[in-house]
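Page header: ASSEMBLY MODEL / four components / 1380 residues total.
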Amino acid sequence: MGKKKIGIIGATGYTGSELVRILTNHPEVEISLITSESRAGELFSDVHPFLQGIADQKLVSVDRIDEFELDLVFLALPHGISMDFVKRFKDKNFKIIDLSGDFRLSSSEVYEEWYQIDHLYPEGIKQAVFGSPELFYDDIKNARLIANPGCFPTSAILGLAPLLSAKLIETEPIIIDSKTGVTGAGIKAKTVNLYSNVNDNFKAYGLKNHRHTIEIQGISDRIAGQNTLIQFTPHLLPVDRGILTTIYARPTGETDEISLRKEYEKFYANAPFVRLRKQAPAIKDVRGTNYCDLFVTYDARTNMVIVISVIDNLIKGAAGQAVQNMNIMFGLDETSGLNLIPLNP
Amino acid sequence: MGKKKIGIIGATGYTGSELVRILTNHPEVEISLITSESRAGELFSDVHPFLQGIADQKLVSVDRIDEFELDLVFLALPHGISMDFVKRFKDKNFKIIDLSGDFRLSSSEVYEEWYQIDHLYPEGIKQAVFGSPELFYDDIKNARLIANPGCFPTSAILGLAPLLSAKLIETEPIIIDSKTGVTGAGIKAKTVNLYSNVNDNFKAYGLKNHRHTIEIQGISDRIAGQNTLIQFTPHLLPVDRGILTTIYARPTGETDEISLRKEYEKFYANAPFVRLRKQAPAIKDVRGTNYCDLFVTYDARTNMVIVISVIDNLIKGAAGQAVQNMNIMFGLDETSGLNLIPLNP
Amino acid sequence: MGKKKIGIIGATGYTGSELVRILTNHPEVEISLITSESRAGELFSDVHPFLQGIADQKLVSVDRIDEFELDLVFLALPHGISMDFVKRFKDKNFKIIDLSGDFRLSSSEVYEEWYQIDHLYPEGIKQAVFGSPELFYDDIKNARLIANPGCFPTSAILGLAPLLSAKLIETEPIIIDSKTGVTGAGIKAKTVNLYSNVNDNFKAYGLKNHRHTIEIQGISDRIAGQNTLIQFTPHLLPVDRGILTTIYARPTGETDEISLRKEYEKFYANAPFVRLRKQAPAIKDVRGTNYCDLFVTYDARTNMVIVISVIDNLIKGAAGQAVQNMNIMFGLDETSGLNLIPLNP
Amino acid sequence: MGKKKIGIIGATGYTGSELVRILTNHPEVEISLITSESRAGELFSDVHPFLQGIADQKLVSVDRIDEFELDLVFLALPHGISMDFVKRFKDKNFKIIDLSGDFRLSSSEVYEEWYQIDHLYPEGIKQAVFGSPELFYDDIKNARLIANPGCFPTSAILGLAPLLSAKLIETEPIIIDSKTGVTGAGIKAKTVNLYSNVNDNFKAYGLKNHRHTIEIQGISDRIAGQNTLIQFTPHLLPVDRGILTTIYARPTGETDEISLRKEYEKFYANAPFVRLRKQAPAIKDVRGTNYCDLFVTYDARTNMVIVISVIDNLIKGAAGQAVQNMNIMFGLDETSGLNLIPLNP
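Prediction written out in full:
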C-alpha cells in the first residue's frame, strides 16, 4: 500500500508552513498538492525561504484540485473562507480537516452570535467532529470532516477535562487566564503584531468576548454533562509560539493534590501527547512539539484547584493536532510523524 | 532652605540604581551618601557603567554613616538584611524608607510564617507605615519609618482598593493572576534569570505560597474592613520591567461598567500617578514611570468584575513609589522629581 | 522673555512621539502646534495612548499653520514628503529642522542617484546645514534650515571623525558594520518589522546600496578633506532601539591605543553628549538618552584600528539630536531638556 | 548489524542536551551511556525537564565507562577538562569526537598562547582531525579522534573556504564581524548571560583576542596554502541560538557576483548542509538545523567581496556537526538523523 496523498489548501500562513514542516518527515504520507491563489506558480519555498531545498513544491490554484487524487485535505484558511471550501468539497472522496473556527461550535446560531458573520454551511456543523483526540478518539476515527480545535481551547480543555469529567469542580464560573505567543495573530503584518508593540510588552485583549470563550464553554458543557460558564481572558506574550493557561476553580467536595493527580493520570493513561508534570511547566518545554504539559495542584488555604497547561499553539494548537487527527482517521499510529522533540533553548 | 540630604544603603542592585537615576534629576534633594560593602572605594558608575558621567559618587561603607548629615535614608537591601539596619538606625535623626519586605506585614508571627526566618526587630513592624500614598497619605506624612510596598502588592492593591473600600466585591476568594518582568528577581545571575531560560519562554512560579500573597491579603483586609482570601499566582514574563495583574472577583450586588468606572474616578481623584484607562493597558505604557494604569470592566454574561493593572515594577513597584513617599514625608509636591514619561517603544 | 514656540509637523511616527516626549519636559520651549492630516481633530494621546495625561494636545491640519506664531518647526515626515514642506515654508519666519533625509546630501544629483526620486527643492540643499553639533556647531548656530543627520550616519561619523580629521586612517575603504533596532524601520506594520520575523532573529539588509552609505561618505569626505570610500552594511537587531556600529580601518602610520584615545579626548573635549568609554559599550548603556558612547582600540597583531559606537537611534539618531540643534539655534545651553538618563535595564 | 553504541560524556550543558535531542531520533545509533559527575544517579530528564518521557536515561559516573561497550564517545565538556579525558581514553577501542577547543589548534604552543593554560596531551593534537566535513571529509572518515570545530570558526570558514581555496581574495587582513546568540556562553548563570543584561541589548566582546580568532586563522592558512591575518570581532545578540557572520575582503583580481556564486556552487556541490541563498539569509532560517546558509556578493563601487554566513551555533556549530562527523566515521549517510527542518517562527 502506497503512501497516503495529502492536499493543503492555503500556503501562505503559519498553519500551512507548519503542516508542511511536519508532513515532510512523515513516513506514511506525501504532499501531493499545496494551493495558493495569490502565489500560484511560485514554489512553496519562495513563500517560506527557510524551506529552500526542503519543500520546493510548486503552488497551484485550488481550481485544479480535481487533477490530483487525494486521500485527505487540510484547510489552512481563515474562518469565514474555510466554510465555503468545506461546502464546495462536500461530495469529494477525500476526508477534510478544517483548521479554522468555522465548524467547532454547536450550531450556526451560536456561530453567528460570536463570529458576527453568517454561516454558509450549517449542514457541515452537524457532520463535523471536534478533533480533540484525547476526548473524541472514536468519533475522529470515523469522521469525514474534522473541526480542528482552536489553540486556546486545546490548552484549556485538556487542562479541565479530568476535573469536568469526574465532576470535581464547580462550573459557574471557571476562570481561564491564558497567555499566548504572537503567531496566534497570524502572519500578516498588523499593528497588533508589530515588533515594537509586542517586544518588552504584555497586555490583555479580547476581554469578555473572545471567540474561543464559547468554543471552550461548548466542549466543557459536553464533558461535564451540565452547563458551564467560562471566564476567558487572553493575553499577548512577547514570544513567537506557545500558550500557557492558568485555570482557577472551586472544588465540589473535599480534595487534595494527590487524588487530583491520580485523576489526571487515569484520564490521560492512553494519551501519548499529554505529559503530567511534577512542577509548573514552561512554554519552552513543549516548543516545536505536539505535547500538552499539565500540572494540577490544590490550595488548601483558599480551597481552590489550580491547573497550568502549556502547548505550542502552532502544533498541538493547530497543525500537529491536525496531523494527529489525520493519523487516527487513516488508522495509523497516533504519533506517526509527530516524534518531535522540544527545541529548548 | 537647602536641598534635603539623602543616603542610599545598598548600591549594587536594581533598586539602588533606580533610586539614583530618579534622585539625580530631583530638584529638591541631593544624594550625600551611597554605601556598599562589597564595592566600597569604587565609583557608583563602576558598578553601573551606563551611569558614567551621570553618577560618579564614591561608594563608602555603611560604617561611615555618621560622617554624613542625612535627612532620609533609603534601604535598598534584601529582606532579612534590611531589618538589621532599621534596628541599628533606630535612634538616628534621619527618616527611613525600607524597600525590602521586612516591615510590610501585620506582625512578626505572620512574617516568620511566610518568610521562614526570625524577625529581628518586631518593634519596627509596629512603627512602620505601609507606604502606599494612594491609601495612607496622612500616615506617610508623619512617619519616621516607611515599609515601601512590594511590586506585586502595589499593582494588586491599587487595582482592588476602590472595590474593597466600597464593598463591591466578594472577598473570599479574590483571584489575582500576575505577570512580572525579570528584574523582579534581582540583579544576581541565577538559573531563574538566565537569558535562555526566560527568552521566548513563560511560566508560573511560587504557586500558593509566594510571600506577596500575605502582603496583599493583609492590606486588603484593612481596606475592606473584613477578611479577604487572596489567590495569588505570579508568572515570569520575558521582559525586563513591568507587572500586569489581572483580577477576577464576584460582585456583591448588581453592577455595571459605568458605575464601576465612576467608583474608580472618585477613589483616585487626587492620585496623580493613577491613570484610569478606557482600554486594557499594556506594561510598556508605563515603562520607566511612576504610573499605575488601571482598567475595570464587568462581564454581565458571567457576572464577574475584571480589573487590569500595570506598573513598572522597579519604579511604582519600588524606587519611584519610595521617592513619592519621600516627597510626602518632606512636605514636597508628591510628584517632584517624578515627571517621568514612558519610554515607549 | 517667554518660552520659544514650537511646531511639530507629523505626529503619528516615532520621531514625532519622541520629540513630544523630550520637549514636554524642556524648560525653555512650549509645543504650540502638532499637525496630522490623517488624525486631525484627535488628541496626540489618542494616537500614542501611553502619553495620556502627558500630551493631550489636539492635532490640527498643517493648513492651519499660519494661525500659530512659531519660532521653530520640526519636520517629522518621511523623505520625499519633507522637501515639499521645506519648499512651502521657505518664506516663513520660523526656523526649520528637517528630520528626513531630503537635505543631507551634497547635491540633488547625488540625492536622485541614491534615493531614486526627483528632488523638488535643490535650493534647500544649498541652504541646509548638516546638524551634527559635534562637527558643525557654528554653522548650526546661524542656520535657518537644519538637515538633521540620519541614525546610522550619526553613529558612524561620530566614531570616525577624530580619525579622519587627524588623517590617522586610510580612507579607501573604511568598513562600517552597523546593527540597528527595529524602530529604524518606522511605526507602520510591514513584513520587515513583524514580530515573528524579528524576534530571535538577525539579518543583514540593504547591502551595498543603503542610502545612509552616501550620507556617511559625503560627510567623511568633508571631515577628511579627501575622498573616502565607505563600505556600509546595516543589520536588523531584535531590539526596539539602539544602533551599534563597528568600524574597521587601516592606520596611515604607527599608532597605539593610548595615542588614539588621547585624540578622541581632545576632539570631543567640549561635546557633552559623547562619552569615551574604557570598555566596549552596549546599546542599553545609552537607551533613552542623547549620548553617543565611543570606544577606540588598536590591534597590533593585525595593524587595524577598531571603533565601537553606540547611540539610541530615536534620540541621538533623530529627535534628541534635533532638540540639541534647536538649543544651539536658540542660543540655549546645548543640553537643555536633554538631561536624560539611560533606562537600563 | 545492530545499532552503533554511543556514549556522551557530560550531560548538564547545552551540547549534551542537543546531542541527546538529535541522537534520540537517529535511526542507526543508540545512546548507551550518558555520564555526569554532579548529577549521577538522576535521570537525564531531571537535568533537562523538557525531555521528560523522551530521554529518561539514568546518568552514571564516567568511572563506570568500562561497563559499557561503546563504538564512539562524544565529549561534551569544557576546554581544559576535555583534553584530560582524551588522554585517559587513548587506548580505548571507541572513537572520540571532542566538542571542546582542546585539539583544534596547530600545536600546543599556539594553544597555550591563546588559551593561557598548559596543554596536557600534545600528542592528541597531532592525531586529531579537524571535523569540518565540507573540507576534510576523507580525513574524518579514517579518524579516531575528531576535534569538532568551534561555532564561530564553522560559520567563518564555510563562508571563506571557496574564496581562499581559489585564491580570490587578499588574505591580510580579512575582516570577520560575527554576531552570536547567548547559548554560546553556556548554560551556567553568569552576569554576561543574565536576562536583563542581554535583552534589548547588544555589544561587542573579546575584541582582538577571542580564542576563535586563531582557530579561524589556522584553518584559513591551510585552505589558502599561505598566511592569513584574521580580524575577528564577536558580538552578543539577544537571541538564544544562531550565528551570523559578515565577512569583508579585497578581491585579488577582477571579479563579479556571478562568477563568485559559481565558485561557491562548485565548491559545495556535494555538501548537503550548505545552502547557497539568493538573498542575505537570517539566523532563524537555519534554527534547529544543521544547515549553513551562505550568500556572497561583490560591491563594484568599493571593490570589496562580502559574504554572509548563518548557522545554528548549537547544531552546525556543535552537536549537529558532531553527529555529521560520526556518520562519516561510521560509513553512514552523512545526513542520517540530521533531516532537521528549521523552526521558523
